[in-house]
User: Fold these one by one.
Assistant:
Number 1:
Amino acid sequence: MIIRERAIKYGDNVNTDVIIPARYLNTTDDRELASHCFEDLDKDFKKKVEERKIIVAGSNFGCGSSREHAPLSIKASGVKAIIASSFARIFFRNAINIGLPVIASIEASNFIQDGDELEIDLSSGKIKDITKDKIFEVNPLPEFIQRIIRSGGYVKFTKENIRK
Amino acid sequence: MSDKNKPQTIAQKILAYHCGRDHVSEGEIVNAVVDIVLGNDITLPIAIEEFDKIGTGRVFDKEKVVVVPDHFAPNKDIKSAQQCKFIREFARKQEIKNYFEVGKMGIEHVLLPELGLVLPGNLVVGADSHTCTYGALGAASTGVGSTDVAVAMATSRLWFMVPKTIKFIYSGSLKKWITGKDLILYTIGLIGVDGALYKSMEFSGPAVNKLSMDSRFTMSNMAIEAGGKFGIFEVDGITEEFLKPRSDGNYKIFRSDQGAEYEKIYNINCSDIELQVAAPHLPSNARNASDLSNVTIDQVVIGCCTNGRIEDLRIAAEILNGRKVDGNIRTIIIPATQNIYLEALKKGYIEIFINSGCAVSTPTCGPCLGGHMGVLAEGERAVSTTNRNFVGRMGHPKSEVYLSGPSVAAASAVAGRIATPEEVM
Ligand code: SF4
C-alpha cells in the first residue's frame, strides 16, 4: 500500500482534547466529528486537509483520553496516515484497530517540514520525502498487528478468526 | 538462565496468568482473557456499533461487562440523552448485571472498586483512559478504545503487548496536607507526560506503604498522564482491609519477583515534596503551590475519579469549615459516588460545603472534561482536583486549568487565588 500526499506538521503532545474536544463527543457520526477535528489546535486544519493528507507530528501524539473519536475524526477528515516521533499507546491501538496507518519515526518526524510531499510504502516500511529527496527506513510493525491491518481492522480480523 | 525462569514483574505475571502461561516476555504480543470490560456513555455507543458487526449477538459474560453512564449524565443535552438511551437499551437487551443508572451511578473508576467489582490480580480493560486507576488494587488494568471493548465484549479476549516496567520507590515522610495527588503530580513533573509511555509503573516504598487506599487510587489514576499502561501497587494490609467488606477473599495476589528487570528505578524522597500544582497546559507542569500564589482564579472544582473520594472531601471540609468561599469564586464539589455523597452527608461535610458557599452536585464527570456543571468561559481560570489540564479541557480553548489536590483547591476557593491551607487557616 503506497500513500503519496503532502504533510501537515504539528508539535509534541498533540492530545485528544485538541484533536476532538469533549464537547463534541455526544455523537458517533464520524463526519460530524471530522467537522470539529483539530479546531482548538489549528483553525485552518479543514482547509489544509483538502490538499494535504499526512499528519507529521512530534512525540506522544494522541495522548489523553481513550476516545476512539480522535482517530475516527482524523480518518474521516481524509487523512491517510500519521507519522510521529512517538504515539500515546491508546491512540496507537485505536488507530490500528480502525485501520488508520500510524508510523513512529523520530528521524522522519524531525526532518519532514510542513508542506513536504511524502510517499509512504507501508509494506516495506519506507518513508520518502520527495520534496527533499530523502528516504527513511522504519521498523516494521509486529506481524500480529500487520495481520490486523491487512484484515482491515480489529473487528474484521476478529470476525475472520471466530469463523475458523 | 533460560527466559522461562527469569524473574518477572507483576505486570508480566498477571498477563501470563490470563493467557494460561507461566511466563511472558517484555515486548511480546499476547492474546489474554480479561476479567472485566468497562464502557461509558461516551465510548460505549461506538463499541456497541462495532460489537454488532462482529455478530456474536451476546456479550461473553453479562456479569463481567460493566456499563456506567457518567460523563454527560444526568443527560446534559438531547444528544447525550440519545447516547445514554442507546447504552441503556443495550444493557437491558444484554441483561448486563452491572449497569448503573442515574441515582445509583457514580464516576466509574471510583464506583467499580467501591463495589468490589475489581480484585487483585484481575486483568481489566475499559474504554476510558483512567481505567488504570484499579492498579491500586494490584490489578493490571488499562484504558483501551471502543473497538477493543467491542472485541473484548464479544470474545473475552484482547491483544496486549507485554510492557516494560518502571519502578518508583517513595521514601521519607509526608509533610502535612500532602496526599497521593502531590506525589503523582511531582512524579509526572519529574518524568514528563511521556515518561512512562507504553510502560507499567510500579509504585512502592515505605512512604506509599502508609498511604490510604484513596491516595493510592489517585496515584494509579494518573499513570496515564505519564503515558503509562498500568500503575500498580502491591497488595498489602491496607488493600486487604479495603477489600474485606467487598469480597469473599477469593482473589490471586501477584508480586514482582526479586531480581525482576526494571527499565528504570526512581528513588523519590517524599520529605522534600511540597503541595503541588500542575500549571496549564500539561499535567507535567508541576510546581510548588506556594510559587503560584499570584494566580487569580474564577472557579474551583473538587471531584473527579482522581479526587472525588471521602479522603478528599474530608480534607476540603477541614479547610472550608467556618470559612467562606471568596466572593468571586464559583466552587463546585462533586462526590464521586452516591455512597461517598451519603458518607459526606453523615459526617457533616456537605453542610460545611453549603454553608461556605459551595455548590454540591450529584456524581458526574461533568466539568472534568468540559461537559457540563461548570464549563469555563474564555479567559477563565480554574483550580481543579481533576487529572488533565490540556487546552480546552474544561471549556473554552482560551480557559486554563491548574491541577491540584483537595487542600490547595479548598484553600484557593477561600483565598480567591492559588493558596495553601496555611494561608487561610
Ligand atoms: S472524572 Fe474526568 S477523568 Fe475521570 S472518568 Fe470522568 S471525565 Fe474521565
Number 2:
Amino acid sequence: MYLSDAPNGASFRVIKVVLGKEVGKRLADMGFTEGVEGVVIRGGVFRGPMQVRIRGYDLLIRRSEAAGIEVTPVGDWRPVAHHLGRPWGGRRGRGWGRFFHGLRVDV
Amino acid sequence: MSQSKIRVALAGNPNAGKTTLFNALTGAHQKVGNYPGVTVEKREGNRIRGDREYHFIDLPGIYSLTAYSIDEVVTRDFLLDEKPDVIVDVMDSTNLERHLYLCLQFQELGIPVIGALNMSDEAEAKGIRINDRALESVLGVPMVKTVGPKGTGVDGLLDKIDAILVGEAYEPNRFIRYGDEIESKLSILQNLIQQDSSFCQCFPSRWLAVKLLEKDANAYERLRQHSNAGVIEGAAREAVLWLEKHYGKDAEIVVSEQRYGYIHGAVKEVIQIVKKPDFSLTESIDRVIMHPFFALPIFVVVLWAIFQLTFVVGEYPMRWLELFFNFLSIQFSSLLPAGILRSLVVDGIIGGVGGVLSFVPLIIFLFFFLSLLEDVGYMSRAAFATDKFLHAFGLHGQSIFPMMLGFGCSVPAIMAARTLKSRRDRILTILIIPFMSCGAKLPVYVLLSSAFFPHHAALMVMLVYAVGVVAGLLSAVLLRNTILRGDPTPFVMELPPYRMPTLQGILWHVWEKSWSYVKKAGTVILAASLIVWFITQVPVYTPLPQELSTLTASYKSAHPNATEAELASYLDQVRAAAAVEYSFAGRLGKAVEPVFKPLGVDWHFAVATIAGFAAKELVVSTLGILYRVGTEGGDKNESLRDALRSDPLFNPLVALVMMLFILAIPPCMATLSTIKAELGWGWMGFSFVFMLSFGWILAFLVHLFGSLGF
C-alpha cells in the first residue's frame, strides 16, 4: 500500500521510499525513513495535497509524491475514515454534515 | 582566523526563527545584498562585544546539505567555499529530531558548529524538556538555549563562539556514526581522499566521503580537483553498489536512515516529553482554514482583502505623492521658460521619478500583508488550497499569490514571486503575470468598450480579463512543455504551526523589499521614462507661419462665429497632434504601421502603444492627443469616444482586437525593469518577445476570423 491511498485520519508505518533520485532523497531528508510512523491529517479535495504528520511535525505532500512512499497500515484504516464522516462530532452525517467531511480530525 | 573579525554563519531549517535570532544578534547593524548571480537575499550584520567583532551571515533556510533548491545550493557553496569560522545552527526546540538532521551534516563540514536550541520557551510550554548539557556530550556539538524574539541566549552563544576560538568546546573529529558497514566504506574513501593534502585543505574528507556515498552530483564534481580523482570515484561507485546490494535500497536513502536512526537514539536519551504533543490551537484553526471545501473560498477572501487593503488604502499615499509631484511640476514650470528644458525637467525627470515612487506605497502595503501572512504561517496553507488546480497547468500552488496580485500591478506581483523556491516555477510565474490585466490597462478597456459596445461595456471588459487569465494559464502549459520543461517541482513542504509574528521582523521585510525596489527598478524605470519622453518630444515640432495661417483661415471659414479662445485651443490641439506625429515616436509608429495593418488599425494606435511602454495609462492620453481632443478627462472623455467612432478604420471588431492586443503586448517599462531585476536581461527579452508575438497572433487571429464572420 502507498501513502497516497491512506484515508484521512489513518495511521501508517513507512516501509520504504520507492521514488528514485532527488525526490526520494528529499523525502528521506524530510523524515520518511523505514519504520517511521505517521498520521494522515487531511487531504485536499479532488485528491489534492495531503497533510501528513511524522516525527512530530506536519508537512504537505502531493498525492503523486505520496504514491512513492510504501507504507503499511497501523490499525484499521476504514473505521477511522468512517468516524471522520461524522462531522461536528455529532452523529453520522446524512444532511449537510456530509459536506463537512474532514472538518474534524481527532488526533 | 583573523583576530579582529570572526565570521559566523547562521544556518538552519526554515521556520526555526533564524531571522529573528539574527536580528537579536546584530540589532540594526545589517546590510542586505544578493548572493552572486542569484536573487537569494544575503543578510549580514555585525556585533561588537569587548574587543571582538563578530560578523554574522544569515544563510537561507534549508532542509539538507544535499542541494536541491537554490537556497540549498547557496548555503552549501557558501559553507564550502567561504569557510566561515563558526556555524551557528538555529534549531526549533519543539521539533529537534528533524532539525538535528541538518546539524549533524554541518558537523561533517569540519567547521565548528554551535547548536542554538531556539524557541526553547515554546518547547518548555509544550512539555518538552531538553537536557542541553547531555545533548552536547552525546553529539559533540555545544548547545545553547535561545529565544529569538526576547534575545535570550545571545550572550551564551557569543560565549560559546569565544570558547571555540580559544580551542575549547570543539571536538574536530567527533562525527555521527553510520554503522559498521557504512563506516568501513567511509574510512576507505577518507583514506584515499586524504592522500592529496592540498585538496583536503579545501574540502573536508569526511563530508566528501559521505556525500559520495549519497551520490551527490556536486560532490562528484568537486572531487575532480583531486589528484587521484579517478580512483576515488571508482571506489565510491563500488561502495555505493555494495551498499545498495547489502541494504536493498538506494545508498542515499540508507545514509539518511542511519542519520535519523542515530539522532533518534540520541534524542531519546536527552529529551523528556512530559506532556502529550498538543496541536490543538493550530489544529482548530486549520479545521476551518484547510477544510476541503472551504479552503479555496477562504483563500479567495484573504486574497481579496489583501488586494483591497493594498490598492484601496495604498491609493491615499499614492495620491499624496502625486500631489507632491504636481506641486513640484508647477513650481518648476513657473521657474523655467517654456520649451524643451522645461519639458525635460517637468515631464521627463519629475514625471519619471514620480512614476517610480508612486509604486512605493503599494509595495510597502503589499509586503506588509504578505510578510504578515508568511510569518503567521498562512502561505503553505494557501498552497494547499490551490495546488491541485494550478498543478494542472504546470504551476505550483504558491504561484497563486503573485498571479492574483498581477490584477493590481505587475511590479509588486513579480517581486512577490520570490516566495517560490524553485527557479523554474518562479520564471514561469513571472512570465505569465503580465497576462493578468493590471489596473492601468483598465482605462484602455473602458474607453474602447464604451465607445464600441455601449450596451455591453462591462461584459466586454470582463471578457478581456477572462481572456487574459486563460491566455496566462495556456502559456504556462505551453512554456512548461517547451523551454521550461522538466519534472514538476515536488510539492513536499513543511506546514509550520501558526505563530505570532513579530512587528520588527515584518517591518524588516517591508523595508528590504521597498528599498531594493527603489534602488533596482528605480534607476531603470527613470532611464526608461526619460527615453520615452525623449522619443515623444524630439525632434521638436514648430509649425511654419504659412501652415498656421492656412489652418486659421480654414477654421474661420468653417466656424464663422468662433471666438479667439476657440481658435487658439483648436490650434493647440492641431499642434500637439502634429508634434507627436513629427517626433521619433510618431515616425517609429509609422514605420511599424505594416505590423499593425493586419490587425486593422493604423499608425495612431502604433504610436499610442509605443507611448504605453512608459505606462499603460498613456495609451488613452496619447490617443487623445492624436485624435485632437485633448488629454483631459481620460477614459470618460466623450469626445475621444466620438472621435474613435468616427474614424472609418474603427469598428467593434477592431476595438475588440485592440483590447486583446493591449492585454497581451509587452508590459510597461516598470514591469520589464522589474523582470530584469529579478531574472536578468535574458528573461526580460524573452518575456518581451513572447508577449509581443502572443498578443499579435491572438489579435491577428481574432481579426481574421472576425472579418470572415462579418
